[in-house]
Write a structure and sequence with these properties.
Chain A: This is Lactate utilization protein B/C. Chain A: It holds the Pfam family LUD_dom. The complex is a heterodimer of chains A (194) and B (454). Chain A is α/β, with parallel strands linked by helices. Chain A is built from 7 helices and 11 strands. In chain B, helix 2 runs antiparallel to helix 12. Classes of the chains: A alpha/beta (194), B alpha/beta (454). The structure holds iron/sulfur cluster.
């Protein structure tokens, strides 16, 4: 017998009696008077930055400045300018020196500062991780209270990959001292469009 | 029974300041957990939901695994099944051989530690680079991780500095965590960029969608998986959950319980390989189906490996992870390991005060301390207990089932402790070893209670 069948049979033989699936009641979870403020407080507490802007065009000047400082920048947001169409072909070796990447994201979560980014938004799975500075852009109205509402709004299976990202990468593996910038981005900025 | 845990603990506590530091550091993590959970009015409700989802899943495991396999295959993931550690390692090796792979990076996966994958591949002449900072540190030192979430928690920054000086040529005596982390970042960046194969663990696998979620703070799982042309994810079959919406419950409790963070930096949802990539998933049994059949211990399969029970445990904090001489230390390890090898791990269920703190913090409500108590009885029944312990336990159980005798022994004991304290403070009293004997009260609690009822 294959291991697959052996395992599944052993499980079937040992499975405990039927227990019902619980119903998750969203009205039983925390709400925030001002989700934006809660989101900002949490993101700042985990080493990220939150900037409120009236329109997305406000970010363009920053991109221009970065470009004239001849930093390696990738923009994946068509509202912000041209998006190269070979992005998904770029390898780790090509992206090693990437300074900043701009990505439009789906939503933010007030309780933990996480932002959902899908594969079609990041264009290349490596981009949000290999950059030094990650810039994510969401609308203020897309900040939800908790993970329950977040999973209600997204469908994790329509694309090949997606991630919740909360602030810059970090580690506390050396004597529990927090160090920002482990393997992923060293800085994370979330632009929120009013 | 071997008393390996006691002997290894003795070695650990020989350095008292370090033991105290270890104890306080883990307690600090436990306090961060408390702060994070007290901020949520629905915390207890979340634990209840998590527990019920896991109970429900265990009672339909066959169906959910079958559903998961079907969906994952439809997503383009290659699914493998391994009955034990050996088969798991062989599957991974065959994928490596088929793809002619040389460079391997691995993010944290307790399952691959359980299967001793690194050693297996090393024997085949293949080097695996662990990319989690803590795991890389212990890998350089040829030590196993001492904690499932904080692998290098037994080390001080001086130790890390010495290790990095030796292996990464960092400045001697520079103990700055920022500097040392940056050195590891540079070193591992080059490993990521060269990697042909990335091995990761799995935190949750979703039956409904055929995908899986990997949580890290460092971003190392993603750096590997999105670079390499082959990705192998390895999971014990208990990682399965029914629906995507259940992730909300588990991602809310996992990091809060583990480190007191509201969520890990990255919660990555993998459903399909990249167009130029192969994605494999190995589903492992290795004793789990046997544990499922043990009515008293099946609940241990609900574990999400948050390590909250480690951080709170008064024994773990003062004896260190290596004293458990197994991959998964701490209270939950002491339940899982006797299932794998009852004889070798017979000492572990005794490495507990049964204070119940573990069960109180467990986010999926496993009755940890009760299971430890039940394992003790199994182990005594199987005859794996040392003669000292056996005599003492037999005597105790006779006394506890005999109220008059219990009261009489209590009177004698209190009288002895007051009048001949030194008799009890001797090496013949195993309880006195590393403990102070208390001052004996004049009255028993029972007499005091009766007096105060009057
Ligand atoms: S037994 Fe509970 S507390 Fe311990 S690691 Fe598992 S889930 Fe966490």
């Amino acid at each position: 017998m294959s291991s697959r069948n052996k395992i599944l049979n052993a499980i079937a033989a040992h499975q405990p009696d039927q227990v019902a699936m619980p119903v998750i009641h969203h009205e039983q979870v925390i709400t925030f008077e001002n989700p934006f403020l809660q989101f900002k407080t949490i993101v700042e507490s985990i080493g990220g930055k939150v900037v409120l802007v009236p329109t997305i065009q406000f970010i363009q000047s920053e991109i221009q400045n970065n470009k004239s400082a001849s930093k390696y920048i990738i923009n994946t947001v068509s509202e912000l300018g041209d998006v190269p169409d070979n992005l998904n072909k770029l390898t780790a070796a090509a992206l090693e020196k990437l300074d900043t990447v701009y990505i439009r994201a789906t939503l933010g979560v007030a309780e933990n500062g996480a932002v959902w980014v899908s594969e079609s938004q990041m264009k290349n799975r490596l981009l949000p991780f290999i950059c030094e500075h990650l810039v994510l852009i969401i609308n203020q109205k897309d900040i939800v209270a908790t993970m329950h509402q977040a999973y209600n709004k997204i469908d994790i299976s329509t694309e090949g990959f997606g991630a919740f990202i909360a602030g810059p990468s970090k580690t506390a593996d050396i004597e529990q001292s927090l160090v920002i910038g482990a393997h992923g981005a060293k800085n994370a900025t979330i632009y929120i469009i009013e | 029974m071997n008393s390996k845990h006691a002997a290894l603990s003795e070695k650990f506590i020989a350095d008292e300041p370090r033991t105290n530091w270890h104890d306080e550091t883990l307690w600090f993590v436990r306090e961060k957990r408390d702060k994070a959970t007290h901020g949520l009015p629905e915390w207890e409700q979340l634990r209840e939901w998590a527990s019920q989802i896991k109970n429900h899943t265990l009672s339909n495991l066959n169906a959910y695994l079958t559903e998961f396999e079907e969906k994952a295959k439809a997503n383009g993931i290659k699914v493998h099944w391994a009955a034990d550690a050996q088969e798991h390692n062989e599957i991974v090796h065959s994928i490596i051989k088929k793809n002619n792979i040389q460079k391997i990076v691995k993010s944290k996966s307790m399952l691959t530690e359980e299967c001793h994958l690194n050693d297996y591949l090393q024997e085949k002449g293949l080097e695996v680079v662990d990319t989690d900072l803590g795991e890389r540190i212990v890998q350089f030192r040829k030590e196993p991780p001492s904690h499932i979430v904080l692998p290098a928690i037994h080390l001080k920054k001086q130790d890390v500095s010495d290790t990095f000086h030796e292996h990464l040529n960092t400045e001697k005596g520079n103990n700055d965590p920022q500097y040392l982390t940056e050195a590891a970042r540079q070193h591992l960046r080059s490993k990521f960029i060269e990697a042909d194969l990335a091995i990761t663990g799995v935190n949750f696998a979703i039956a409904e969608t055929g995908g899986f979620v990997v949580c890290t703070n460092e971003g190392n799982a993603d750096m590997g998986a999105h670079t390499a042309k082959v990705h192998i994810a390895c999971m014990g079959f208990e990682k399965i959950i029914p629906k995507a919406e259940h992730l909300s419950v588990f991602l809310r409790i996992l990091a809060r319980s583990a480190t007191g963070q509201a969520i890990t930096t990255y919660s990555s949802h993998f459903h399909k390989p990249r167009p130029d990539q192969e994605m494999h998933l190995v589903i492992v049994d290795n004793g789990r189906s046997r544990q499922l059949g043990r009515a008293d211990f099946k609940n241990s399969l609900k574990c999400i490996r948050c390590a909250a029970c480690f951080n709170t445990c008064p024994v773990y904090r003062r004896s260190g992870g290596h004293s458990y001489h197994t991959t998964t230390a701490g209270p939950i390890g002491s339940i899982l390991n006797p299932n794998l090898d009852m004889k070798t791990n017979a000492d572990l269920p005794f490495a507990s005060t049964l204070c119940g703190s573990c069960s109180n913090v467990c986010p999926v409500k496993i009755d940890i301390h009760e299971q430890l108590w039940k394992w003790r009885q199994e182990i005594v029944k199987e005859g794996y207990v040392s003669s000292d312990k056996k005599t003492a336990m037999k005597g105790m159980s006779y006394m506890f089932s005999n109220p008059a005798l219990y009261r009489f022994v209590g009177i004698i004991g209190r009288w002895m402790m007051r009048n001949f304290p030194n008799l009890l403070k001797s090496k013949h009293n195993l309880w006195f070893k590393q403990r102070e004997m208390p001052e004996a009260p004049k009255k028993s609690f029972r007499d005091w209670y009766i007096d105060h009822q009057k």
